[in-house]
Amino acid sequence: MEGLEVVLINHKKEPSLYNSAMRNTSKNEINFYAHGNLDGLTNNSGKWIKTPAQFNEYLTAKSEQWRNRKEGGNTVVVLYACRSGRATVDDDGNVTKQSLAQRVSEKYGITVIAPDERNLVYSDGTGIPTRAKYGDKNGNYSSEDHTLEGEGNWLVYKNGELTEMYGAGWTPKANPTLWDRIFYRKQIDDKMREAYNKNVGDNKTPDPQTDKDGKSN
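Structure (tokenized):
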């Protein structure tokens, strides 16, 4: 591959989406294209990545940059996958499950950038997080009308902590420019920051669906 993209898309079933992903040739971050929801990443053909261990296993096989990353380095992963950065919350706004993006960021001490809404991927490989017109507190469809309307956000996790948030029109990158910070960076609500970061540092139990060695079951 020319860039550092990783694609979990069935190229035979979805050639247009696959080809769009392949046009992202940025070499500054690992750009990971997949379908996604609050449970994890998928190719809609039976392959799922739901835990940091499964994420590591897949990237170890697919990404030279991931294999060669250094502990304490500046590895940045961008997930172009629907709601992959969004935590699951209860009716009071308390986080009941951290997003895969946050758990991967904490587990491996890296920066992960991911959308909080459904991610529309365009022909050049860019993505726009877009809200469901009729959605519940977790962004699940609450109507048979699946119209997408309104912009979502790009969430930035560093070492497991939610540190920054950018508007939907931002192009995620390892090193945001001054322009990015002036025109796209958004303030994170204190309640959201507290809820998302409450259990960071306490997430030391083995991943679900893995054995004690961290291998996928």
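The radius of gyration is 16 Å. The first helix runs from residue 15 to 22.
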